[in-house]
Amino acid sequence: MPIGKKPIQLKEGVTVEKKDSMVTVKGPLGELTVPIPAQVKVQIEGSEVTVGRGTEYALIRNATLGVSEGFTKELELVGVGYRAEKTADGLKLNLGYSHPIEFEFPEGITAEVEGNVKLKIRGIDKQLVAQTAAQIRKLRPPEPYKGRGIKYAQEIVRRKPGKAAKALVGAAGAGGGA
Description:
Elements: E1 8-9, E2 15-19, E3 22-27, E4 30-35, E5 42-45, E6 48-51, H1 54-68, E7 71-78, E8 83-86, E9 90-94, E10 101-104, E11 110-114, E12 118-123, H2 126-138, E13 149-152, H3 163-173
Antiparallel strand pairs: 1-6, 2-3, 3-4, 5-6, 7-12, 7-13, 8-9, 9-10, 11-12
């Protein structure tokens, strides 16, 4: 059975309502609304929701997971002197610039700072959590020579050899022959 045809199983404490072209999902962590085109059929039967198409299926499934469990993105700051500090409504980041950067969170997003170099961005809206993490990463993306910057926790930064390494390889190969 294709994924889009499977019913979405609602967890305990999660309710789904359809009004006109909006599906409202309520749960222990909050409430989300998902706009649905008129031609897409959504059927709610007890603790199961059946959706007619794939994208809308994923949006409603993510909303049900968000209001019951929430979503998390983890970031790491790599570099000497790079650190994060939580403020009242956002983060204060030292990223090697001449000044600290103040980052304010959108409504519905919270963060934890572990050891000044690890960030956990949390929220119930998967898209908003990922977008906020991407905006923070964009402040200082990881560079390929020394690996400094802000990276996702599971991201692997491909490293490049620097000028010195290239010069050594070039010198060894240029021995010349007579």
